[in-house]
Please model this.
Amino acid sequence: MRASPDVVPSSARVVVLVSGGGSNLAALLEAQRDPAWGARVVGVVSDRAGAGGLEIARAAGVATAVVAPRDFPDREAWDRGMAQAVGVFEPAWVVSVGFMRILGAPFLDRFAQRVINTHPALLPSFPGAHGVRDALAHGVRVTGCTVHLVDAGVDTGPILAQRAVEVLAGDDEATLHERIKVEERALLVDVVGRAAREGLTVEGRATRFG
Model:
């Protein structure tokens, strides 16, 4: 299966999903200052009205929307609400950066093979909300970050790119996570730009740009 932007590569439309502070969003907004990057953030959607990423978006002149679960009668209705809110922006790609909700079928069916996520571990090892903590507890010497497509599982989608980060003596969860975040931001910027410029081919679990 092939998933590729339906707009010219020089202006591939991107919607970013945020729940927290938005440091990865800030990195994407900085990257788009270079037209050669190939993508443009056209909207930011959050599940939390107080998410810091919304302020970053507004300061950059990017349209925002909040789709709070409490405003919907059930999970499926919220998923449909998310799909509608994101669909308004007609994105070529949806990028989840620190978005702390699992996206369900109504959303993933609409944006199949076009939702990109980051995770602070080398998947398939240490999926879930505590990837850094779990890697430390397991005693690994090397961990890192993964950028992958989102599917119906928890951090189970096809892998797009990874970078390794050494675990140093004396590391705790906070220090290790900060070093991972540096690599994660750079990797995400690279992957989103390549997806925008080149498109993405997915065959089973194998992926390639172009």
About this structure: The CA atoms of residues 1 and 202 lie 5 Å apart.
